[in-house]
């Protein structure tokens, strides 16, 4: 494959936060595990789109957001994310999915009228969950209430209940579920933000998640979808990898692969 010339720099920011998780904790441990898998000598730093992510100046790691001293969740994440957004295309490593709300707030401040392409087993549209409006089950309700996105497209959804159906209708969410879809038919226009919850994948491919939902995407299907999203892609997050539930580091390896493909797309946007 011929090497592609990156158009912009990409900055990685880890957000080790899982205080808004339900059922299982552990996703706060994910960022260093993903970095470890990225550095594994079993693979290399090239994306399938032909970007050498190890080339000087292409990929910058900004470390992890610090939550020492129990600082305010939203303000801490937003301010840290804005610093990365101002320096290039951000790629955020969670953490649980509650992070996507403040991350999108940060990205939309510079890139209004976002289209969000969301990969997940769950629509995360609850008005509140267990009395928590900022639960990891609620970020897209907050995003759509605040009009941070002009369009929300969800792929891989396979656990839709009555309340979330009502929420989807209320906000005009395009839920594609597991049916095959050609991205070209969706007529997506930029700027685009990608939010990838690892449990969009079938648990046979990625067992290291807190909420395993059988019948999901294969890694190949997910990558093909990602490659078909038209740009400009201005930001992305990868969330809900839970090392506590992983098997032999399998899911960490999958996450590293997805990070490389997301970073490659961000570089070329």
Shape: globular
Which strands sit side by side, in order, in the main sheet?
A: 2-1-3-8-7-4-5-6
Q: In sequence order, what are the helices and strands, one letter per element?
A: EHEHEHEHEHEHEHEH
Helix content: 25-40%
Low-confidence stretches: none
Helix-and-strand structural type = alpha/beta
* Rg calc: 17 Å
Summed over residues and divided by their number, the pLDDT gives a mean of 95
Q: Tell me how many strands there are.
A: 8
Distance between the termini: 19 Å
Largest sheet: 8 strands, parallel
Helical segment count: 8
% residues in beta strands: 15-25%
Give your account of this protein's structure:
The chain is α/β, with parallel strands linked by helices and 269 residues long. Helices cover 31% and strands 18% of the residues. Strand 5, helix 5 (162-171) and strand 6 form a beta-alpha-beta unit. It is globular, with a radius of gyration of 17 Å. The two termini are 19 Å apart. The model has no long low-confidence stretch (mean pLDDT 95).
Task: Furnish the topology, listing elements before pairings.
Layout: E1 10-15, H1 30-38, E2 59-64, H2 73-85, E3 89-94, H3 100-110, E4 114-119, H4 139-145, E5 149-155, H5 162-171, E6 174-177, H6 183-186, E7 192-197, H7 219-228, E8 233-239, H8 250-268
Parallel strand pairs: 1-2, 1-3, 3-8, 4-5, 4-7, 5-6, 7-8
Helix pairs in contact: 1-8, 2-3, 3-4, 7-8
